[in-house]
Amino acid sequence: MRAARRARIVGDADLRQGRCLEIGPLANPVVSPEVADVRYVDVVDRAGLVAHYDGDPAVDPDEIPEQHFWLTRPDGTVSTLAEAVAADAPYQHVVASHVIEHVPDVLGWLRDVAEVLTHDGALLLAVPDRRYCFDVHRAPATVGQVVQAHLDGDRTPSARAVLDHFMRAVDYSAEQAWAGEQPPTEGSHPLDDVRRLLARQRAGEYVDCHVWPLTPQVFAGLMDDLLALGEVGFAVERITATRVGDQEFYATLRRLDRRREPAAAAAEARSALARIRSALPDESPSPRSGDTELVPAHVVADLEQQLAETRERLMKVRSARDRARRERDEARAAATAAEAADGAGLVGRLGRRLRR
């Protein structure tokens, strides 16, 4: 299961080429030392992670690996990713599974990742789709929010992010979403808890939350806007649709060549991204009949995409089958011709002997 998911996250990237940095592996690293030459980085060191997740049934402390780097300094301040790993950079691949949605300043974070990558390095992402998790009631992230967080210099999730997360989060799974169940209207965090968390945030604590609710189309749109503004140094090579029954999508971002003129590189990247966006399923909700939703538009689109992929594979199989049949028929015809030629030659030789 872990190998299959790693393959979906990595896509066509070869992790054996160059060194790899995984951000926030917690107790379930995507990349193990057996797979690649990998380093791990998180907000705190392993001891801090074990203490933070003590008693959390979803996290096995024994599975948390040693962190090579961490962002929190001895004085409690938080460094940037680029500052934390500077002595060990650059890396050919940076892997981040369910990380980007937590990052307080995602624009600054993308710039940090670009800084620690080789000139042609790639950022490999697994991202939760807000439609299939506790973020279902939240509005999608906007480019204005992304730029504002960067201008504000957010090193910890903002009051806006903490309130949006804890006020709107509900107990809702991917299984329920794909089964067509309506999400609950009652939030999963009591108001007193929300107030305490906001107070902690205002006191300067790092209150972890989903800062950026995303979907494949929303993420593609944000990247396009940031490329248009000249604010990001990545081209988008891949964004997948969220698979039916799943709750995450995958993306590959390739660092722009800094030797090129920035505007031309960004324009080329936007053109490629437009093709990727056009291939993604439409995420607009399907029409309703009374209070009953018909088959959701994203389900139909995803199934149609899978059907198209199946048809394409079938066409390739049929083409290979037809080619094999042609080659077989040609071989048989050649063999028949050869046998006929041999037979004619034998008859001729016998005739000559009889005439003697």
List keywords for this structure.
356 residues, alpha/beta, Rossmann fold, 2 domains, seven-stranded mixed sheet, 9 strands, 44% helix
Describe the overall structure.
- The protein has 356 residues and is of the alpha/beta class.
- The protein has two domains: 2-280, Vaccinia Virus protein VP39 (Rossmann fold); 294-355.
- The protein has eleven helices and nine strands.
- A hairpin with an 8-residue loop joins strand 6 (234-239) and strand 7 (248-255).
- It is elongated and about 110 Å long.
- Residues 287-294 have low confidence and may be disordered.
Write the layout of secondary structure elements.
Elements: H1 2-10, E1 20-23, E2 38-42, H2 46-52, E3 69-70, H3 81-85, E4 91-97, H4 106-116, E5 117-128, H5 143-151, H6 159-168, H7 174-178, H8 191-202, H9 216-228, E6 234-239, E7 248-255, H10 262-279, E8 288-289, E9 292-293, H11 297-355
Parallel strand pairs: 1-2, 1-4, 2-3, 4-5
Antiparallel strand pairs: 5-7, 6-7, 8-9
Helix pairs in contact: 6-8, 9-10
Keywords: Coiled coil, Methyltransferase, Transferase
GO molecular function: methyltransferase activity
Pfam family, one: Methyltransf_23
Number of domains: 2
CATH superfamily of the largest domain: Vaccinia Virus protein VP39
- Counting DSSP H or I runs of 4 or more residues, the number of helices is 11
How does the overall form come out from the CA principal axes? Answer: elongated
Helical amount among residues, as a percent range? 40-55%
Give the biggest sheet. 7 strands, mixed
Q: What's the CATH class label of the largest domain?
A: Alpha Beta
CATH architectural designation of the largest domain:
3-Layer(aba) Sandwich
